[in-house]
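Listing S7. Sequence submitted for prediction.
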Amino acid sequence: MRTTVVHTDETARQEFDWGTIAWCVSEAAGNSEKLTLGRVVIRPGQSNPRHAHHTCDEVLYLLSGELVHYADDMEPVRMLPRDAISIPAGVFHNATCVSDAEAEMLVTYSSARRDIEHG
C-alpha cells in the first residue's frame, strides 16, 4: 500500500432513501488492507436500516446534526456533534436523524472488508 489522499467530494456516493454513504478508505477502494472509513449522511427524520457487522467493530463520530442511536445492547442514546459511539462486532444497531439539518458522520470499521447483515 502507498500513502493515499482521498478528496471526499470526489468519492462516489451510494444513494439511499434515508441518505448517502461515501466510502473513502477500504480494500475495495484499493487504499487499505486493514480498515474501512466512510462519510455517512442521514437526512432529517430518516433512519438507516437496522444492521450488524459480524467481522468488525464500528466507531461512529458525529460531525453535525443530532442522532438517536439504537443498539441491541443498550438504551437509545441521543448523540450531538463531537460525540462518538463504539459498536462491537455482531451488535445490531441503527440511527435516526432527529435534527432539522442532516446528520453527518464519519464511520470506521476494524476491517478493510466490512460485512453487513440487515435485520
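Caption to Listing S7: primary sequence and predicted C-alpha cells for the chain studied. The CA atoms of residues 37 and 108 lie 4 Å apart. The chain has no helices and eleven strands.
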